[in-house]
Amino acid sequence: MGPAAMRRRLEDQEFALRVYPGALAEGTIYCPVSARKNTTAAEAIECLIERLRLDRTKCYVLAEVKEFGGEEWILNPGDCPVQRMMLWPRSALENRSGLGSGDDYRFLLREKNLDGSIHYGGSLQMWLRVTEERRRMVERGFLPQPAGSDPPSDLCALPELTERTILESLRAHFRQEKIYTYIGSILIVINPFQFLPIYNPKYVKLYDNHTLGKLEPHIYAVADVAYHAMLQRRKNQCIVISGESGSGKTQSTNFLIHHLTALSQKGFASGVEQIILGAGPVLEAFGNAKTAHNNNSSRFGKFIQVNYQESGTVRGAYVEKYLLEKSRLVYQEHNERNYHVFYYLLAGASEEERKSFHLLKPEEYHYLNQDCFTVEGEDLKHDFERLQLAMEMVGFLPATRKRIFSLLSAILHLGNIRYKKKTYRDDSIDICNPEVLPIVSELLEVKEEVLLEALTTRKTVTVGERLIVPYKLAEAGTVRDSMAKSLYSALFDWIVFRTNHALLNNKDLEDNSKILSIGVLDIFGFEDYENNSFEQFCINFANERLQHYFNQHIFKLEQEEYRAEGIIWHNIEYIDNSGCLNLISKKPTALFHLLDEECNFPQASNQTLLDKFKRQHEGNSYIEFPAVMESAFIIRHYAGKVKYGVKDFREKNTDHMRPDIVALLKSSKNAFVCSLMGIDPVATFRWAVLRAYFRALVAFREAGRRHTHKKTGEGKKKKKSIFSPPRCSDETRKNLTPKTHLNREKIMIIISIIIIITSRNENNKYKYTHLLDVKSLRYLSSVTLHDRITKSLLHLHKKKKPPSISAQFQASLNKLMETLDQSEPYFVKCFRSNAEKLPLRFNDGLVLRQLRYTGMLETVRIRQSGYSIKYTFQDFVRHFHVLLPRGTSPTKSGIREFFRRIHLPPAGYQVGNTTVFLREVERQRLQTLLHQEVLRRIVALQRRFRAVLERKRFVDMRRAAVCLQAAWRSFRDRCRRRCAAAVTVQAAWRGFWERSRYCRTHGAVTRLQAMARGHLVEEHNGHIFKSTQYSIPTYCEYCSSLIWMMDRACVCKREDASLYDPELSSRQYGVELSRLTSEERTVPQLVEKLINYIEMHGLYTEGIYRKSGSTNKIKELRQGLDTDVSIVSLDDYNIHVIASVLKQWLRDLPSPLMTFELYEEFLRAMGELTVSLHPPPTLTHLSTLERLIFHLVRIALQEETNRMSSNALAIVFAPCILRCPDTIDPLQSVQDISKTTACVELIINEQMGKYKARLKDINSLEFAESKAKSRLTLVRKSMVRPGLLDIDPGCVSSPVAKYSRSSDLWRRCATSYEDTSTRKENHCVVCVSGKTFIGKIQTTYSRASRFFFSADQLHLNFASTSRSSESTKVLLTTSTKRGPYLYIITGAINVFTVI
Question: What CA–CA distance (Å, rounded) separates 1167 from 1169?
Answer without folding.
Answer: 6
